[in-house]
């Protein structure tokens, strides 16, 4: 797993990092003039776990948060939870025939990626797979949007997504790509075993090679007038259909 130092901001993201991965939180900055009781809880929890806490002015938080709304708190985080593709086999095997993988093909909006991670964590997914190129990375915006989910689920960045899908098939994983023009319904397929759900990016959906390496293309039936769903919404619908089928 690769590591790098970065700032994460926002109440939920910082609280989750302290609760779930305190050993990788190096320090916490809290706005000195803030009145939010959640910040008091964060400060107490951080100090209880031996994390340095500093009271700073708003300008200091603006500096580390950049364009992301910091809500009066930031944390310097030492680990970016990005797993190598060599670890995928172990993650699938550990799921004992019930792996649920989310594959995102060039999702470039960090807010969408964060929302997808949140749905994946809520659904108990085994891992989220993203390409190293032309994809949003797990940055401060993603961590904040995911409401802490980025600290709870393995994110695997792969060099070649098509090759990764082929490798997953060799491990006994069935690959289903979501595409609006597909004839089969998501609700008609068996999602109870080793399954990877593949969703495309905001602009063009699934790329050609990604489509060709899926076992089947399926669609979410939409009787209304809208032709497609936002990728994060489609992710939630797809993952929780798998959850429903598995009786979890």
Automatic annotation (TrEMBL):
It comes from the Bacteria. The keyword GTP-binding does not apply. It is found in: Cytoplasm. S-adenosyl-L-methionine binds at residues 200, 220, 229. It catalyses: guanosine(2251) in 23S rRNA + S-adenosyl-L-methionine = 2'-O-methylguanosine(2251) in 23S rRNA + S-adenosyl-L-homocysteine + H(+). The keyword Methyltransferase applies. Its main location: cytoplasm. Pfam families: SpoU_methylase, SpoU_sub_bind. Residues 7-83 form the RNA 2-O ribose methyltransferase substrate binding domain. InterPro entries: 23S_rRNA_MeTrfase_RlmB, Alpha/beta_knot_MTases, Ribosomal_eL30-like_sf, rRNA_MeTrfase_TrmH, SpoU_MeTrfase, SpoU_subst-bd, tRNA_m1G_MTases_N. Belongs to the class IV-like SAM-binding methyltransferase superfamily. RNA methyltransferase TrmH family. RlmB subfamily. This is 23S rRNA (guanosine-2'-O-)-methyltransferase RlmB. It comes from Stenotrophomonas nematodicola.
